[in-house]
Amino acid sequence: MKKVTGTISATQKNLSDESKEKLETLYADVVATRKMGKLERFIGPEFYRVIRGLFNTPASIVGMILLFLFVLVAVFAPFIIPSRGGTRDPYQIPRDGFSSIPKPMMSDWVKQTPESVPGWYKIVFHKDEWVHLMGTTSGGYDIFYGIVWGTRTAFSSGLIIVLLTLSIGVIVGSIAAYYGGQVDNVIMRIVDIFMTLPFLLAALILAAVLIPRIGRSNVPAIIALTVFGWMGYARLIRGDILAVKERDYVLAARVIGVKDPTILFRHIIPNAIFPTLVIASMDIGGLVLSFAALSFLGVGAEVGYADWGQIISFARDWISTLSEYWFMVVFPGMALMLFVLAWNLIGDAVRDVLDPRLRGSI
Amino acid sequence: MTTYIIRRLLLVPLLLFGVTILIFGMLQFLTPAERASLYIRDIPKNERQLEIIIKHYNLNDPVYVQYWNWMVGKADPITGEIHGGILRGDFGYSRTGSEPVMDMIKHRFPATLELALLSVLPIIAVGIWLGVAAAVNHNKFIDQLIRVLSIIAASFPVFVFGLLLIMIFYAKLNWFPTGRYSQWVLEEIVSKQFATPTGFMTIDAIKAGRWDILLDTIRHLVLPVLVLSYISWATFVRVTRSSMLEALGQDYILTAREKGLSENQVVRKHALPNAMIPVTTMAGFTVVGLLGGVVITETIFNYPGIGSAAASAATQLDVVTVMGFALFNGFILIAANLIVDVLYGVIDPRVQLS
Question: Is the pTM higher than 0.80?
Answer without folding.
Answer: yes
